[in-house]
Specification:
The complex is a heterodimer of chains A (270) and B (250). Chain A contains 13 helices and no strands. Chain A is mainly alpha-helical and 270 residues long. Helix content of chain B is 34%, strand content 26%. Chain B has helices spanning 43-50, 95-100, 115-127, 143-155, 173-190, 201-207, 224-229, 232-237, 241-249, and strands spanning 3-14, 17-28, 32-36, 58-63, 66-67, 77-80, 161-165, 193-197, 210-215, 217-223. In chain B, the strands form two sheets. In chain B, strands 6-7-8-3-9-10 form a six-stranded mixed beta sheet, with helices on both faces. A four-stranded antiparallel beta sheet of chain B has the order 2-1-4-5, covered by helices on one side. Chain B starts with a strand and ends with a helix. The chains are: A mainly alpha (270), B alpha/beta (250).
Chain lengths: 270, 250
C-alpha cells in the first residue's frame, strides 16, 4: 500500500485531525496535572465518564453530551471532598471513580441492549470518529487551549507552589476549579481517541517524556505537545497498517518514546 | 500612613490547640524586625496568618491601611517562604521563569511577561550577582543558589515590605554576610520594611532595629538594645547570652 494513499481516506484524515487537537490538549493540561501529582485524576475522571456514557446510551442521547456534565460534576465533587471534607486527593478520586463505574455497570445491566456500544467507549476507536465528533473535539480543544494560554502564568504559579501563588494574588481556588473542569472536558474528548481505559496514559506519558528532556517550563509544554502529536499520528498510521486498535498503539508509541527519552537523558548526563 | 502592619488581639488555633494567643503589635515604614523564638513557637504561623494563608481565630490585621481580607496590593509585599527544601527537584522551571512568578502580583488579567519585565528580571539577577544562573533549571542549583533565586523573586516588584522565613538556612558564611548586607542596603536606602524569621539572633541584632520574641504570645517586642538591657535576654537565651550577643553588638 502506498503510504501517501493512507492520508486520502477521509476517516484517516478525521482521525489525525481530531487526534492532533486532543493530543495537544492532553499533553498541555497533563503537564500541570503530573507536576501537581494529580496524574491519576485523568484515570478517575475517565471512570466517571464510564457512568456518563452508560447514562447517555441508556437515555438514547449522544453519550458525550451526557458524559461532559457528569464528569464535570464528578470533578467538582472530588474538589469538595479534598478541600472541604479534607479527604486525601487520591482517596477522593478513588471514591468518585468507583461510584462512576458502579453506576455504569448498574445501567448496563438493567438495559441489556448497549453493552457493545459501551465497550467501544472503553477502548476507543479514533478511526470511527464522525465529522460531528471531529468538529466538537476541535472546538472544545481550541476553547480549552485558549483558556490555558490566558491563565498560563496563574496555572504555572500554582503548579510551582500553591502557597506562594496565593501571596502573589493568584485566586488559587478559582484556578484549581478551572483546572479540574478543563481536565473533565479533556477526558471526555479523549474517550473516543484512546478509550476510557487508556486516557490516563494519554495525559501522563507525553508530560513525563517532556520532563526527561525539558530545559524549562515552556520548553516542557512544547516537548510534551510535539511528542503527543507525533505519537498520535504514528499510532494511527501503524494501527491502520497492522490492523490493530489505534488507542492502544498510541499508548505503546508513547511508551517507546519514553524509553528513548530516558536513554537519551542517561547518555546526555554522562 | 505610618503603619505597614497593625495586628490587634490576634489568635490562631489548630483544632483546639492555640498556636498564637492575644498577639498585638505594629510595624512602621522602614522597620527591620527580627522575629525569633523556639521551633514551634508560632513564628511561621504568624507570618502565614498575616499573609492570609491561614485564617485567624480572633483579632484583626491591617495591611497598608486596609483590612487584610480586603487587601489586594500583593506587589507591595515580597515573601520568601521557609520550605524551599520541599521544592520538587525535577520541576522543569528555569531560574528566569521562577523569578517571573514574582511579577504576577503586579499584573492584571491576562498576565503576560513583557520585554520590559524580562529586563527587570535581568536587573534583579544582576543585583544579586546570579546572572549566570538565568537559564539553569531551579532543581539543578545548590540550596544556597536556590535561596538567592527566591530572594530575587521576592525582590522583583521592589516591595515595600519583605517577609523572609529563615532565609539564610542554606547559605555558607560568605553568602550569609552578603545576604544580610543586601537586606541592610534595601532597608537603609529604599526604606524597605523587613520581617525576618531567624534563629541567628547574633547576626540579626547587627541589622534589625526591632526584635520580636514569640512563644505563642509576644514575650518581647522592642529595640534590640532594650532587649539586651532587659533581663529577658538571659532568661530566654541563657545566662551567657547577654555577654556574648549584646556585648558583640552593644
Amino acid at each position: 500500500m502506498n503510504f501517501i494513499t493512507i492520508f486520502q481516506y477521509s476517516f484517516i484524515q478525521r482521525a489525525i485531525i481530531t487526534g492532533i487537537f486532543v493530543a495537544l490538549l492532553c499533553s498541555t493540561l497533563g503537564l500541570f496535572l503530573v507536576l501537581r501529582r494529580l496524574s491519576l485524576i485523568g484515570d478517575g475522571l475517565a471512570h466517571i465518564s464510564f457512568g456518563g456514557v452508560a447514562l447517555g446510551l441508556f437515555l438514547g442521547v449522544f453519550p458525550i453530551y451526557i458524559a461532559i456534565p457528569t464528569v464535570i460534576i464528578g470533578a467538582l465533587i472530588i474538589l469538595v471532598l479534598m478541600d472541604k471534607i479534607k479527604i486525601y486527593g487520591d482517596a477522593a478520586i478513588g471514591i468518585i471513580a468507583s461510584v462512576g463505574i458502579a453506576a455504569g455497570v448498574i445501567l448496563a445491566s438493567i438495559s441489556h441492549g448497549f453493552n457493545l456500544d459501551l465497550l467501544s467507549y472503553l477502548f476507543g476507536n479514533i478511526l470511527a470518529i464522525s465529522i460531528g465528533e471531529m468538529y466538537l473535539s476541535i472546538a472544545l480543544s481550541i476553547v480549552v487551549l485558549l483558556v490555558i494560554s490566558l491563565f498560563y502564568y496563574d496555572l504555572f504559579s500554582i503548579t510551582f507552589n500553591e502557597e506562594y501563588a496565593k501571596v502573589a494574588g493568584v485566586r488559587v481556588r478559582v484556578i484549581n476549579t478551572m483546572l479540574v473542569v478543563l481536565t473533565a472536558i479533556t477526558v471526555v474528548l479523549s474517550i473516543r481517541v484512546v478509550g476510557i481505559m487508556l486516557i490516563s496514559a494519554f495525559i501522563v506519558l507525553p508530560p513525563v517524556i517532556a520532563l526527561q528532556l525539558a530545559k524549562g517550563f515552556k520548553s516542557a509544554i512544547i516537548v510534551s505537545a510535539i511528542t503527543s502529536v507525533i505519537t498520535v499520528i504514528l499510532g494511527i498510521l501503524v494501527s491502520f497498517i497492522l490492523n490493530i486498535p489505534a488507542g492502544a498503539m498510541i499508548v505503546i508509541a508513547n511508551f517507546i518514546f519514553l524509553l528513548l527519552a530516558i536513554g537519551y537523558k542517561k547518555i546526555a548526563s554522562k | 500612613m505610618d503603619y505597614i502592619i497593625k495586628v490587634s488581639e490576634l489568635s490562631f488555633k489548630y483544632d483546639s490547640v492555640y498556636v498564637l494567643k492575644n498577639i498585638s503589635f505594629d510595624i512602621k515604614v522602614g522597620d527591620y524586625v527580627g522575629l525569633v523564638g523556639y521551633n514551634g513557637s508560632g513564628k511561621s504561623t504568624l507570618i502565614k496568618v498575616i499573609l492570609g494563608l491561614l485564617k485567624p481565630y480572633t483579632g484583626s490585621i491591617i495591611l497598608f491601611g486596609k483590612p487584610q481580607e480586603k487587601f489586594n496590593s500583593w506587589n507591595k509585599i515580597g515573601y520568601m517562604p521557609q520550605n524551599i527544601s520541599l521544592l520538587n527537584p525535577v520541576f522543569p522551571a528555569t531560574v528566569e521563569e521562577v523569578i517571573s512568578l514574582g511579577l504576577l502580583s503586579a499584573k492584571k488579567f491576562p498576565k503576560i511577561i513583557s520585554n520590559e519585565d524580562k529586563q527587570i528580571i535581568d536587573e534583579t539577577l544582576d543585583y544579586l550577582k546570579i546572572s549566570d544562573l538565568k537559564k539553569q533549571l531551579i532543581g539543578n542549583l545548590s540550596g544556597g543558589q536556590q535561596q538567592k533565586v527566591f530572594l530575587a523573586r521576592a525582590l522583583i516588584t521592589k516591595p515595600e515590605l519583605l517577609i523572609l522565613d529563615e532565609p539564610s538556612n542554606a547559605l555558607d558564611s560568605t553568602s550569609r554576610e552578603q545576604f544580610y548586607s543586601i537586606l541592610d542596603e534595601l532597608n537603609k536606602k529604599n526604606k524597605t520594611s523587613i520581617i525576618l524569621i531567624t534563629h541567628d539572633i547574633g547576626q540579626i541584632g547587627k541589622y534589625a532595629n526591632k526584635l520580636m520574641y514569640l512563644e505563642q504570645s509576644i514575650l518581647f517586642y522592642g529595640s534590640f538594645l532594650d532587649f539586651c538591657n532587659s533581663d529577658k535576654m538571659s532568661k530566654l537565651f541563657g545566662p551567657d547570652s547577654q555577654h556574648i550577643i549584646c556585648h558583640q553588638h552593644g
